[in-house]
Amino acid sequence: MGAERAELDEKAARVERMLVDAGLAGVIVGAQHNFAWITAGGTNRIDGSREAGAGALLLGRGGRRYVLANVIEMPRIMDEAVAGQGYEPVEFGWEDERSSPSFLVDTARKVLGGSDPIGSDLPVPSAVGTEGRLTRARARLTGAEQARFRVLGRDAGEALGDACRGLETGMTEMEIWRRSADALAARGARAIVNLVAADDRIARYRHPVATERRWERTVMVVACAQRDGLVVSLTRIVSAGPASDDLRRRTRATAGVMGRLLAATRSGATGRQLYDEAARAYAEAGFPGEQRKHHQGGACGYRTRDWIAHPASDDVVDAPQAFAWNPSITGTKIEETAIAHGDDDAIEVITSTPGWPAITVEAGGATVEMPDVWSRED
Q1: What does the alpha-carbon distance between residue 328 and residue 255 come to, in Å, rounded to a whole number?
Q2: What angle, 0 to 180 degrees and rounded to 10, lies between the N-to-C axes of helices 2-22 and 131-138?
Q3: How far is it, in rounded angstroms, from Cα 367 to Cα 136?
């Protein structure tokens, strides 16, 4: 409990600084990812199709903490999501919640008093948007978050590897999709992104939604796994027989781009610098322009990506921070999640699959192993 309390206090202090800097009396935290962050893994998710959760938190200056929820949601949130975290309940009828678009903001003003504006991480009339500020507050991982991230990365790497090793030619993409989701669910994780591409669909589509297509030669499986709010991303490619020389060549080149991105993920580096580094790496590997065919990934944590590296990005690496990079060359992809520590620019890959064939690459003076194509004949 001591470690959890330290994490909660650190996050509360970050929010307090945000409120003072923005001149806000308080902030309503209703988005599912921010709710999970501020509660160290609690959830207000009922409907996964929505950004907003069911129920919200209100954090005011001076450490004031409230749960704003209707009679349906309040018991579970108080008993399971924020138990022991010092939140006071502010309950209302579910009908009241629908009486006005600004109901939550009006309620927050009554609770906090004063005339300073109220912030919100969701678009709410009369509230100041705070998602950008909260994204920056979330960036630096606490020690407890890093520990949870490592365990999630390990479990996801093992689960997806096991699922892929069990694939048989002739299975449909939808069957593989289910295997991937089930393998992650068995580890208590949810596949919030689950993509599968068989054969020529790998080269045709960078985001291949699973179909009834049956795979014969090669299949790519992509997963973003969520647990306790945290999200890791990874990709694995399986070949029915020996992988072609061209696929091996492209995959090794892609791994080299990943090494360059990992090496460049240093404290203070901007998204545009990271994008430029990827562009140079593709060109030097003999595949110029591949960076324009798909984004390269970027910072992550409680979302699949908090920001993506692009030519105009002013976002900055703020270590210790998590990154999910996904360089791709037409027909193949490398994707792993890592923690950039900032200490001597160290970076730690956390989603490796034990026993998976690896490509060793240089990453800023260190060597890291990236997933190669796994052949079922290996």
Answers
A1: 9
A2: 140
A3: 30
Q: Rounded to an integer, what distance in angstroms lies between the CA atom of residue 274 and that of residue 6?
A: 33
**Model-level pTM?**
0.96
Q: How far apart are the C-alpha atoms of 343 and 323, rounded to whole Å?
A: 16
168 φ/ψ angles, rounded to the nearest 5 degrees = -125, 140
CB-based contacts of 268: which residues, under 8 Å, 6+ apart? 316, 317
- Tokens standing for residue 332: 């193949």
Architecture of domain 143-375: Alpha-Beta Complex (3.90)
Q: Where in the chain is the domain with CATH 3.40.350.10?
A: 2-138
Q: Which residue, 372, 84, 375, is CA-closest to 254? A: 372
Residue range 20-58, pLDDT digits in tens: 999 999 999 999 999 999 999 999 999 988 999 999 999
Amino acid (one-letter) located at 359: I
What DSSP element (H or E) covers 108? helix 103-112
Q: How far apart (Å, rounded) are the C-alpha atoms in residues 66 and 227?
A: 24
Per residue in 239-263, pLDDT tens? 999 999 999 999 999 999 999 999 9
> Cβ distance 267 to 345 under 8 Å?
yes
**Pairing, β 230-239 against β 307-308:** unpaired
For residue 116, give every residue at least 6 positions away whose Cβ sits within 8 Å of its Cβ, in sequence order, or none: 23, 24, 25
Architecture of the domain delimited by 2-138: 3-Layer(aba) Sandwich (3.40)
Within 10 angstroms of residue 63's Cβ, the number of other Cβ atoms is: 12
Q: Scanning the structure block, which residue is given the tokens 């504006």?
A: 117
Q: Prior bond to 357 cis, omega within 30? A: no
Separation between Cα atoms, residue 27 and residue 60, nearest integer Å: 7
